[in-house]
Design a protein that fits this description.
Layout: E1 9-24, E2 27-32, E3 36-39, E4 44-47, E5 51-55, E6 58-76, H1 81-90, H2 93-98, E7 112-115, H3 118-129, H4 135-158, H5 164-184, H6 191-198, H7 202-213, H8 217-235, H9 240-246, H10 252-263, H11 267-280
Antiparallel strand pairs: 1-6, 2-5, 2-6, 3-4, 3-6, 5-7
Helix pairs in contact: 1-4, 3-4, 4-5, 5-6, 5-7, 5-8, 8-11
Protein name: Helix-turn-helix transcriptional regulator
Keywords: DNA-binding, Transcription, Transcription regulation
InterPro entries: Homeodomain-like_sf (IPR009057), HTH_AraC (IPR018060), HTH_AraC-typ_CS (IPR018062)
C-alpha cells in the first residue's frame, strides 16, 4: 500500500485551556503569553515564550492551562523535508547532482526545547505574516532548525563515551532530564525522580549532566525556581507561603533562605525594591 503523502502546514490558535492527544508530523512548537506542556514517549516538555520545541513524528499529548490566552504558532513539516535539507548540508555537490531524488534514511532530531535565535524568530515572524505560505519558506526554516541541530553535536561529542551512538543516546537522556526539570520545577522533585525520567542512574546522570550544562540538576532546579519567584513577587500579590508552595517547596523559611542566597535580598525586600523602582520610574 502506498504511503499517504504529507504536506507542510501551520496551526495557529489562542486558548486559555486546551488538551489534545494524537499523532503528529515533525514539527516546531512556539507559544506567546504563556506556557504549553507536552508529553511524549521520551519525556515532558514546557514551552514558553522565546523558546521552541522540536518534536519528531509520532504520538504526543498537549496541554494548556493558563489564566490568560496563550497564542500558539506551530509548523508541521512534510515527510522527507528534513532529510532533503540535511543532505544539502552533508553531501558533496557531485553527489547531490548525480542522484538528487535519492531516498534518504529517516532523520531523528533531538527532541528538546531551544532558545529561539534572532534568525529563527525573524523567519517565524515573516511566515506568520504571509497571506500565502510558499514551500520555500518551510525549506529556509528547516535550514535554521538543522543548523541548530548540528550545533548540538559539539555537546554530544564532548561526552566521555567511545561510540558515537552511545554519546547521542546519552545526550538525549540528559536532555530529557533537563526538560523534566524545566517542566516540573514547581513540584517537589528529587534526584531519583529526575534520573528515572531520564532512564539513567542518579550517579550516571550527575556525572554527565554538569558535563553538558555546567550545572548540577539541583542547581538548575534552584535557578528555575528563583526565576519564577522573581516573577511572582514582581507581578502578583501572592503571600510568601503561597509562592513557596507554587515553587514545589514546603517551608517558607527555606524559600526565603534560598532566595536570599541567589539574589542577596529576602523575598519581602525584593518585592519592596520592585515597587520602589516602579514608582521611581
Amino acid at each position: 500500500m502506498a504511503m499517504k503523502e504529507t504536506s507542510n502546514y501551520i496551526l495557529q490558535a489562542k486558548s486559555k485551556q486546551f488538551y489534545w492527544e494524537g499523532n503528529g508530523q515533525l514539527s516546531i512548537k512556539t507559544f506567546t503569553n504563556g506556557k504549553a506542556y507536552y508529553k511524549t514517549s521520551a519525556g515532558f516538555f514546557a514551552v514558553e515564550e522565546k523558546r521552541h520545541l522540536i518534536l519528531n513524528e509520532g504520538p504526543y499529548t498537549l496541554m494548556i492551562d493558563e489564566e490568560e490566552e496563550v497564542e500558539s504558532f506551530c509548523i508541521f513539516f512534510k515527510d522527507g523535508l528534513a532529510e532533503e535539507v540535511l543532505a544539502s548540508f552533508r553531501d558533496s555537490p557531485e553527489k547531490l547532482l548525480s542522484d538528487p531524488f535519492k531516498d534518504r534514511e529517516k532523520t531523528g532530531l533531538f527532541e528538546k526545547t531551544y532558545h529561539t535565535t534572532r534568525s529563527l524568530s525573524d523567519k517565524l515572524q515573516r511566515l506568520q505574516k504571509m497571506s500565502s505560505k510558499p514551500e520555500e519558506a518551510f525549506h529556509f526554516l528547516m535550514e535554521d532548525i538543522l543548523s541548530q541541530q548540528l550545533r548540538q553535536f559539539r555537546d554530544v561529542n564532548s561526552l566521555p563515551a567511545l561510540r558515537e551512538s552511545t554519546r547521542e543516546e546519552l545526550y538525549r537522556r540528559i536532555s530529557i532530564a533537563h526538560e523534566y526539570i524545566r517542566a516540573c520545577y514547581q513540584e517537589s522533585l528529587t534526584l531519583s525522580e529526575i534520573s528515572r525520567a531520564a532512564c539513567l542512574s542518579p550517579n550516571h546522570l550527575l556525572r554527565n549532566y554538569s558535563w553538558i550544562y555546567g550545572k548540577t540538576p539541583h542547581q538548575h532546579l534552584s535557578q528555575f525556581r528563583i526565576a519564577e519567584a522573581r516573577r511572582l513577587l514582581a507581578q502578583t500579590n501572592l503571600s510568601m507561603t503561597d509562592i513557596t508552595f507554587r515553587l514545589g517547596l514546603n517551608n517558607p523559611v527555606s524559600f526565603s533562605k534560598l532566595f536570599k542566597q541567589h539574589t542577596g535580598l529576602s523575598p519581602s525586600q525584593y518585592r519592596k525594591k520592585v515597587i520602589l523602582d516602579k514608582n521611581f520610574h
